[in-house]
C-alpha cells in the first residue's frame, strides 16, 4: 500500500471511529474529549469534523459539543429494514414460544430531534385466541414502555430485561431486553401481551436470549464490529 493510500485509509478509519464514539454519547462530546478518545491531536479532530460536517454527518450545538448529524438518517433508514429482516425468524420463534406479540425496536431521532423508540419488526403469535396488535413504525418516547427503557438501561450498562405495565397501552404488559454488542445499533427485543399473560420468570430469559441471537446474526451477516 502506498503512503498516500495508507494515510487515506487511516483518515477514513478515524472518521468512522469518531462516528461510532458519538453514537454512544447522546449529549455530544467536545473536541478535546474526541481527541482523547481517538488518541489524536485537536487539529486532527477539527479536520475530521470539517469534512463530516460538510456531509451533515455531525453537527455542533450548544457548548460546541459535537453530535451525530441528520445526514445519517437516510443511511440509518436504509439499514433498518435489513436489521428487521435478519431478526424476523428469531422474533417468530419467540412469539410462538411465549404466545405473545414479539417486536424489534430501534432508537432513532424523531421529527422533533429527540431520540425515540421505533418498532421495525413485529411478529404476532399464530396459535392464540387473542393477542396485542402492534404496528411496524409505532413510535414512542424512550422513557415509556419496556422497549425504550431497555435501550436506556443499555446506555447505563444494563443488559437484563425490563418489565412495564400499562405505559403504552392500558392493561398491557411489556418485557424487553437490549440488543448488545453491535457497534452503532441501539435496539431492543420485546414481548407485549394483555393482562398477566407474560410471566417474567419464564419469558424474560427467552427475550434476553433472542436479543443476543439477533445481535450475533446482524454482526455476522453485516460484518459490523462488536465492541
Q: How many distinct folded domains?
A: 2
Shape: elongated
CATH superfamily of the largest domain: GAF domain
**Number of helical segments with 4 or more residues:** 6
- Give, in order, the helices and strands: HHHEEHEEEHEEEH
Radius of gyration: 19 Å
**Count the strands?**
8
Kindly estimate the percentage of residues that lie in beta strands according to DSSP.
15-25%
CATH fold name of the largest domain: Beta-Lactamase
Helix content: 40-55%
Strand order of the largest sheet: 5-4-3-8-7-6
**Ends apart, CA distance between termini:** 27 Å
Largest sheet: 6 strands, antiparallel
Q: Could you give a short description of this structure?
A:
This protein has 227 residues and is an alpha+beta fold. It is built from six helices and eight strands, in the order αααββαβββαβββα.
Provide key terms for this protein.
227 residues; alpha+beta; Beta-Lactamase; two-stranded antiparallel ribbon; 6 helices
